Amino acid sequence: MPSARKKSRKLWTRVLAVLAALLVAALAGVVLAYPSLAATTCPGCYGLIELEGSVYTEDGLSDAQKAQVKRTVAEARTRITDFYGTRTSSPTLLVCMTESCYERIGGGKERGIAVLNRAVMLSPRGVDTVIASHEMSHVELHTRLTSGAEVPQWFDEGLAVVVSDDARYLAPETAEDRGTTDARQPAEDPGTTNDPGTASTPRTASTPRTTNDPGTTDDPRAADDSGTADGRGAVKDPGAADDRCLVPPSGPLPVTLDEWLTAASKDAGTYAKSACQVARWLRDNGGRAGLLSLIERLNAGTPFATLVKAS
């Protein structure tokens, strides 16, 4: 019997050793294949330090750089709160002030990216309120979609442009717009949750990044010659002078992430067209109240296509 026990122990020791080796190999594979995912999971493993709650930067920043990061994050959070009325997400933010830092954590040519819609990475070119709030908008939307309901990529990206108030893709907001959308109006103090949730549309490190953020495509304002130029040289829809459209949609917009990446790489106006579609939907459906109602109905199981009709 003692001999049998020893053999059994040796067998289990070998099994555990093999399992441990497989686990290490799997983790190493994840780190190599998806450095962004690994970095957002363990920022310290990539040489980042915590600047403030959930905000990580490279070591050795000047006081001015630290202040810039803090100001950008605070202003971006305010835009999320002002748009929704409250903020439910609390994504981990990895902010790089040098290209070497951004490359180390798996970044590419983009200014910023939402990783699996639960964390945000910003490059030195993306430490800006518009870019930060655009990427944080993705996290906020999918945090609110607690059921894991899916929305088409054009809506996700178009909404992020509206939330971030990106002047490259939208005309200036008027008093009438503000009264309709509720955006950037005084709101409750932002609430946060410890669990930002997971996204229904993952954006991973293996995804081509040059079209994932709004800062890497060419300016779309002259992408459509069917309108008339406004005072900023932008093209506006001649039939919608009262809305914020610069480039109106001229056909179906990308639904899946792959479709979006393909379309945005070929058509610089894809962001503006999607933003136009979302801005008009918000205008016609009560702004914030309409969006919150849409999210509630999506969480209840109603398909997006039956709730929102794309023009």
TrEMBL record:
Residues 175-187, 233-245 have a biased composition (Basic and acidic residues). Residues 172-250 are annotated as: Disordered. Residues 1-33 form the signal peptide. The keyword Signal applies. It comes from the Bacteria. Keywords: Signal. Residues 198-211 have a biased composition (Low complexity). This is Peptidase MA superfamily protein.
